[in-house]
Amino acid sequence: MAKKIVIVGGGTGGTIVANLLARNLRSQISGGKIVIDMITDKPYHIYQPGLLYVVFDRMQPEDIVRNQRGLVDPLVNVLIDSVLNIDRDNKKITTETGHNFNYDYLVIATGSRTVPELIPGLAEGAHTFYTLDEAKKLRDSLARFEGGKVVISVGVPHKCPVAPLEMTFMLYDYFRQKGILNKTEIYYTYPINRVHALEPVSNWAVQEFERKSIKYETFFNMERVDPDKKVVYSMEDTQVDYDLLIAIPPHKGSQVIETSGIGKDGWVPTDKVNLNNDKYEDVFVVGDTTNIPISKAGSTAHFESEVIAEIITSRISTGFSLRQYNGKVLCFIESGFDAASYIWFDYNTPPKPTAPSKMLHWMKLTYNQLYWSTVKGSL
User: Fold this and answer.
1) How confident is the model at residue 378 (pLDDT cuts 50, 70, 90)?
2) Mean pLDDT of 52-59
3) The domain 3-111+254-329 belongs to what CATH superfamily?
4) Which residues of the chain form CATH 3.50.50.60?
5) Which of 14, 42, 200, 353 is deepest in the core (most CB within 10 A)?
6) Architecture of domain 115-251
7) What is the model's pLDDT at position 377?
8) SS3 string of the chain?
9) What is the pLDDT of residue 190?
10) Nearest 5°: CA angle at 378, between 101 and 330?
């Protein structure tokens, strides 16, 4: 009987795992000894870092969207459907349309979602940029904006930890180029005692803020927003008024993780080096879905995917694997329209942002195009 590998989720992590496994196990799949099924609830795939560029009209929506089936190796079966339940004890997946899948190996790649409803008034009073529609709405609002106070307020947890900083720096350049910087105040808030969770990144960002006269407030946890008065209130009993509010809503994992009893708030308990779910050695977790306390970023999913694909390949081929994940993450940080910084780190190496440069900015723009090769497992 063929061994069955099921991948739930078609984002960066799930797609890379599927393509790497198809490449590694091509002869066994062609010979009917292995079956790989991917279940994803969307027929399209979005390059999520590109949403920031859509906001500033530097990428078009069609630049960051591809058909999901076209990104996945033909040897992988792709079902566009929503998963209703994951039964790890019986190794069974149930979908909304009534399909049932059994598996020998399961990869959970269900990602994360914004939950603005946790903060009263946030959905009504704030712009954000985590979906294509939201990015386009913010783009259109910025086109009409002629000056005032712009507040960037951050909720936690959230994916792509540097995105709020990138948004702030790109806003600065946008207003400068539009000629309204002298009529605009940029105000940034963050929930802890610094402007970013990683202290070296925070120290670098503060220097950039002060150089550009961007105001900021720490220990500001959004409690509620009054869209009529245009005020955002904090749990610390402070408040900030705004003309334009750009919020980073708190995130949760997928609802199916909660309903299946796998993890609180949709985050799956995950071994930080072996990337398996608790005692379930045949269940692997990748990307935003994990509860590992590292950045929920595309590069994290990329490096985890490579490890998971190698572990499953080795297990099938030899019965064991020595491969482990070392916590590697790397990230470009746009510091405006024509410069970027860069960080990398792992479990043993702290991040150290480089000085912003045009070269790093162009490297980031190059990767925006190379992403499609990455998810196909070519890079």
Assistant:
1) confident
2) 97
3) FAD/NAD(P)-binding domain (3.50.50.60)
4) 3-111+254-329, 115-251
5) 14
6) 3-Layer(bba) Sandwich (3.50)
7) 83
8) CCEEEEEECCCHHHHHHHHHHHHHCHHHHHCCCEEEEEEECCCEEECCCHHHHHHCCCCCHHHCEEEHHHHCCCCCEEEECCEEEEECCCCEEEECCCCEEECCEEEECCCEEECHHHCCCHHHHCECCCCHHHHHHHHHHHHHCCCEEEEEEECCCCCCCCHHHHHHHHHHHHHHHHCCHHHEEEEEECCCCCCCCCHHHHHHHHHHHHHCCCEEECCCCEEEEECCCCEEEECCCCEEECCEEEEECCEEECHHHHHCCCCHHHCECECCCCCEECCEEEEEECHHHECCCCCCCHHHHHHHHHHHHHHHHHHHHHCCCCCCCCCCEEEEEECCCCCEEEEEECCCCCCCCCCCEHHHHHHHHHHHHHHHHHHCCCC
9) 97
10) 95
In single-letter form, the type of residue at position 68 comes to Q
